[in-house]
Amino acid sequence: MGRMKPAALLQHSKKKKGPAKLNMATVVVAGVVIILCLSSFMVLHRHKTRGNIDGAGDDNIRNIADDKGAQEAFGVENNAVEALPESHLPRYATLNTTKGSITVEFFGKQAPLTVENFATHSKKGYYNGVLFHRIIKDFMIQSGDPGGDGTGGESIWGGSFKDEFTEELTHEAFTLSMANIGEANSNRSQFFITTIATPHLNMKHTVFGRVVRGKEVVQVMSPLLKSFRAFCCRLFCPEFNLSSTFRFVTFSACLGCVK
């Protein structure tokens, strides 16, 4: 019998080997594995973008998603916004929470844009019912995200607005200050109140007020979750959701007028 030529050998091979048939069970298993991998990736991605991780531990304020795409989704910077005169801004505000009332004095002269942003949001009900979504014992309580998970919020101008740093205003205990994403001019709606002096935040976050009444309310809130780092959501922390939210904010021109 003569040797089969290459062309004939190829043709013979094609006739002998038919297309491989995939077992249905194999297809199902492969599909399940792919779905599980995608689900794991999405969970890890959400955890990363929701977290406050900036490589420096809990003694830093970092609220909004770290990746550039998420930052851009919140809007452009509004650094050309003109500030209102101090006389047009409220001097005091009372933050009514389900744990009690906190009265703050604003620094409208040094931080007019920030005070205007906070006051306008408050008067329009933007903060009503919003969680104190991040509470760290011996550090601060943080709020201002309507979504309640620390990844959202915007300024009254629709994006971010510029920092208003000044060396005369420092982060003492019970300071009202703006949270940001760790970059310049990235203020939106989230803010925090310190429970101790935090000088490492000076010239990094805009100080725009100080608690003058209700410090005990801030202290009551502070140990709620101790140093629990993950964001509290409505589903898993119903008690926290019910006991630590804004109800409404009222304003006054003088401390004696504050009820």
Q: How does this model look, in words?
A:
The structure is a single chain. The protein is of the alpha+beta class. It has a domain at 86-253: Cyclophilin-like (Cyclophilin, Beta Barrel). 27% of the residues lie in helices and 18% in strands. It is built from six helices and ten strands; from the N terminus they run αααβββαββββββααβ. The strands form two sheets. An eight-stranded antiparallel β-sheet has the order 4-5-8-7-9-3-2-10. The chain has a two-stranded parallel ribbon with strand order 1-6. It is elongated and about 75 Å long. The termini are far apart. Mean pLDDT is 74; it is low at 43-57, 63-75 and 225-243.
Task: Put the structure in a nutshell.
This protein has helices at 6-16, 24-50, 68-73, 112-123, 215-221, 238-243; strands at residues 77-78, 92-97, 100-106, 134-136, 140-143, 160-161, 175-178, 191-194, 207-213, 246-252.
Q: Order the strands across the largest sheet as they lie in space.
A: 4-5-8-7-9-3-2-10
Encode the helix/strand succession as letters. Answer: HHHEEEHEEEEEEHHE
Task: State the helicity in percent bands.
Answer: 25-40%
Basic shape: elongated
CATH class of the domain at 86-253: Mainly Beta
User: What do the pLDDT scores average to?
Assistant: 74
* Contiguous uncertain segments of 5+ residues: 43-57, 63-75, 225-243
Enzyme class: isomerase
Protein name: Peptidyl-prolyl cis-trans isomerase
Transmembrane segments: 21-44
Domain PPIase cyclophilin-type: 100-222
